[in-house]
Amino acid sequence: MRIISRDSIYARLGQFGFRPIPEWYDEVKFGIFVHWGVFSVPAFGSEWFWWYWKIALKPEYILFMVKNYPLGFSYTDFAPDFHAQFFDPDEWADIFEASGAKYVVLTSKHHEGFTNWGSPTSWNWNSVDNGPHRDLVGDLGAAIRKRSLHYGLYHSLYEWFNPIYLSDKQSGFKTQEFVEKKAMPELYDLVNRYKPDLIWSDGDWEAPDTYWNSTGFLAWLYNDSPVKDVVVTNDRWGLGCYCKHGGYYNCADKFTPGELPNHKWEKCQSDMVYVVALGGNYLLNVGPTSDGLIAPVFEERLRGIGAWLKVNGEAIYATKPWRVQAENATVPVWYTSKSSTVYAILTSNPMQNSFKLLTPKTSNNTVVTLLGNPEPLKWAPLQTGLIVLLPDLPFTPADAWTLKLDEVA
Class assignment of domain 320-406? Predict the structure, then answer.
């Protein structure tokens, strides 16, 4: 393995690093985040069920268990009921493709420690030896790639109740037995076995990157791994790393920049148009059932996003932030751009025939169209911006419409 210093490897990951993120990641803009594991069996609250029940002692979680399960029932007793008997990876992949998403990130292992593949370091706490008795990571990956979508894997570095991790924690992280026997072997196994295009790291915040040996893994990943030229990673590789080091930033959960960030970022909440206008990628969470189904209400919404993107996708995919990202017009407007084309995305119906945009600088060659409507729209310049005569706006599942402005400054 090539030895690279900590500062050097973080330069590769940082804003001014010499390894730019792979072009595919900036162009795709929209992905699906699949949270699926033993926590899908109680299907109550969130994937943090075990923690909230046993450590945080949240009353609603305790009451849920009292009402629904016998005294003495443990979290590990949920695993055999994680059947995934109706899991059809091709059906999932069809739904994700129909949504317009260009990449899919699956939880290979959340903080509960249960791995969705037959990890050789997970004993029987994995989907091959327990529960579904199949390789969920591999099966979904094969289906995703048949549709030319990018495949990423979420992986939690730490595990809430793993005794080896708790022993390292008790030592003040002066020992690294968990890293050497569990966390790092799993990451190397995931990369070598499944060759992910993206690694969504998490569970790092209790210990510094020197404990996790993050730089050693990342040096291998970017120099010698089978995905070294295409892989992208986030910023959760140790205490104090997020929002500072990473191919792209997740920062804290629900990070919401108030202005255009100076580094590629991704958000798992909020709305896609806002995120893309500010240069980010939007990763939409989907939580399948324990028996392997995507609920009809989720499928309907995913296909609705896809229907909107079929009309408006050119204002999203492969775009760049414009010099102005938003405008408070009659209704909120978000801007994206490609070369001399600017897209103004109206996020609600202005309910009027004429609409003013105050930011674009027009020329005699400017052409304005409504995406999905082939005929150019009539418009007139203003002292600042322009006024557009709108047609009747068609139904859209997202309640958003895009004005395409060609040949503007």
Answer: mainly beta
